[in-house]
Amino acid sequence: MAKELPRRLGPVAAMGTLVGIMVGSGIYRVPSSVAGLVPSPIGFLLVWVAGGLLAIAGAMVFGELASMFPSTGGRYVYLREGVGPLPAFIYAWSNTIVLRPASHGAVALVFASYVGTLVPALAGRHREIAAVLILLLSAANYRSVLLSAGLTTITSGLKVLALGGIAVLILILAPTAAPAAAAAAAPMVPSWHGFGLALVTVMWTYSGWGSTTYITGEVRNAERTMPLVLAGGVAFVVLLFLLVNLAFLRALPLGDIAASKAIAADAAGSVLGETGRRFIAAVVLVSTFGSLNGVSLTSPRLPFAIGQDIPRLARLGAVHPVFATPHVAVVATTVLSVAALWTHSFEQLANIFILGGWPFYILCTVGLFRLRLRRPGLARAFRVPGYPVVPALFLVAATAMLANAAAGDPGKALLGVGLYLLGVPVFYLLRRGARPEAPPA
After folding, report:
1. 411 Cβ neighbours under 8 A, 6+ residues apart
2. How many CA atoms lie less than 13 Å away from 1 in the CB half-sphere?
3. Considering only CA atoms, which of 297, 291, 362 is closest in space to residue 79?
4. What are 269-314's pLDDT values in tens digits?
């Protein structure tokens, strides 16, 4: 039985996966949340600009880490090598049990809500529709990595063209009187607390670039391909999201954006009528389908990497003898995702993923600094431009953003800490017989 996943993915598949995950459900739901937290058009756009710059800086940090460790598992590997096996395990534990299932559930629920827009008879069946979608995409991922990656690449191209096209049409055709009046009446500068909370939500929309690193071990020439995919792909998506949010502001007053439950459909409908509303609903279906397929492809690679490291969890690291996929990890991820779907709302799932995931982006950046200092001879096909300023800015901004989010919702922050602490005894119970620790970083 094979112990490693074969490198069968090229740069197009890797880029398609990144774009497919990032252009998912968030851009169709998050602008309403941001408008509610930042009640001014200027502040609304500044949040998206700030989040985009933060995402690009983080993508470059991960690009250097991927060039050093072109292995399956992404952040898990970077944490293991950069800060040690315990933080890496806690990351893998929390992501596998809670955070990745929460992400899957949130995206699937957005898909299901837009199915209800197109087919009113199914409007009350959100969880059932979402569960069926997760099962179907997991089955494709179980069968073939090339099939799953191909689906993501095709849907990525379709949704980028459609989303960009509809945004351009809105900008050209929308009247400006009502939004302009609303802008004149709105405060020009948002509160820092509201801005920070909005930034946390925006970063969930941008966060797919981190998940793409899970498939690094299956990408050909990954040490050179992945840095280009990460930096270039994130920059492209940032520009696309700014264009889309400009279109939303052009189509609707900020208060209407904040009140909308389906902002893309409402914005398109206000300018293009019912045809535009139904078209954008179809675009959202394609978009969320592709995004969920992308996370269904990447997420099982995390428990797979754990299984490769820890003999007592070796079953998770099994490779299917015929399909060459991490089939046991796929099944485990699917079961947890469907369970999360039936126990939480969209907002709860999104908040779980945001507050739980970002501490590890911060730790990965700390690991980059430690690796530069303690393992300077390690081969690096890519280095972060502007080091140490760029990663330091990312570290400070991400820490401030997370602290602001924790202050705004201390209960969820404490639950996250509790989840991490639960992973500590599990780590030591499993440690006996685990792989030798990485050299001190």
Report:
1. none
2. 11
3. 362
4. 888 888 888 888 888 889 889 888 998 999 999 999 999 999 899 9
For the record, the structure tokens of 383 come out as: 């280095």
The identity of residue 248, as a single letter, is: F
* CA–CA distance, 222 with 3 (Å, rounded to integer): 19
Q: 379: closest CA among 64, 75, 73?
A: 64
Residues 82-102: tens digit of each pLDDT: 999 999 999 998 889 887 887
CA 228 to CA 217: how far, in whole Å? 16
Query: Are the C-beta atoms of 249 and 45 separated by less than 8 Å?
Result: yes
**Cα 322 from Cα 27, distance rounded (Å):** 38
The residues near 221 (Cβ < 8 Å, ≥ 6 apart) are none
CA 227, CA 64: separation in Å to the nearest integer? 7
Cα separation, 424 vs 430, in Å, equals: 10
Long-range contacts, 343-347 (Cβ 8 Å, 24+)? 344/102, 344/105, 345/109, 346/29, 346/106, 346/109, 346/110, 346/113
Which pair of structure tokens corresponds to residue 190?
């948002």
Distances (CA, A) of 69 to 5, 80, 257, 388: 15, 11, 42, 20
